[in-house]
Amino acid sequence: MTKDTKKPLLKPSVKQEIKSWVLIILIALGIKQTIVASYHVPTGSMENTIMTGDFLFGNNFIYGSRTPDWIGIPYTRMGLHIPWFRLPSIKEPEQGDIVIFKYPEDQYVHYVKRCIAAPGQTIEVVNKEVFIDGERYPDPKYSEYVRPTTYSEFWKDYNIFPRGAGNQDNYGPIYVPKVGDTLRIGEYPTQLLKNVVELAHHSFYIQDGKVVIDENEQDYYIVEQNHYFMMGDNRDNSLDSRFWGFVPFDLVVGRAMVVWLSINKEMPLYRFTKIVRWNRFGKVLS
Fold this sequence. Notes:
- Helix content is 12%, strand content 30%.
- It is built from three helices and 18 strands.
- The strands form five sheets. It has a seven-stranded antiparallel beta sheet with strand order 1-2-18-5-6-16-17. Strands 9-8-7-10 form a four-stranded antiparallel beta sheet, with no helix packed on it. It has a three-stranded antiparallel beta sheet with strand order 12-13-14.
- The longest helix is centred in the first third of the chain and has 21 residues, at 14-34.
């Protein structure tokens, strides 16, 4: 008669542990990249819709999830760019959406702004009031103005893009290009044309008064993707498309959804119970 013998429990090997952690990390990164991700807002350009110190979740799949375009050491710029593609989208950004996108002048940085003008629309700002295709665009519900005065329409701010377009209170009119548009040299502002062409990864320069794109003289350029005009709800304190130009669809990451944490960094430590803005928790962004 034999006795049943219990097999000893085998501890997972180091190799198995590593495989498990790698799988967990890959799943987490996949969710972050394609479904939902957390973003921190360090500035007040969207106040009072989004407050300085808000942490929010962004919907990364509604506009079509982007596969990773860079691999490297997190929180550094040590790494390399890799080919990427966009998964099918439910929709593209629309006027009024709060959009998360890569800053065109530094694509390591994410910005959160409101889409004020969609592809094919014309934007103009007159005495701080926004007009789209000639119609008054209503101010967002929680928008804020921190400067009571208005810059004269006759003053040209050379920080504004393109130069000569006015100032942040009196701006444009500027047409926002859509895919398939033919922008003719001499008819469309050269600075804006350069912005659109270079964001599509083409070379652009002027030689002997002629526009040269990819080493060929051109009389026109056919737009390859939709573009968007982004603006902060706190328009007096926002560096947005008025200062650096359009956002092409390639740089769109997702749509801001909800605040999951809000930290008031101006609150002194002895009032630590007030550092977290509890009333912001779960606020849906619109």
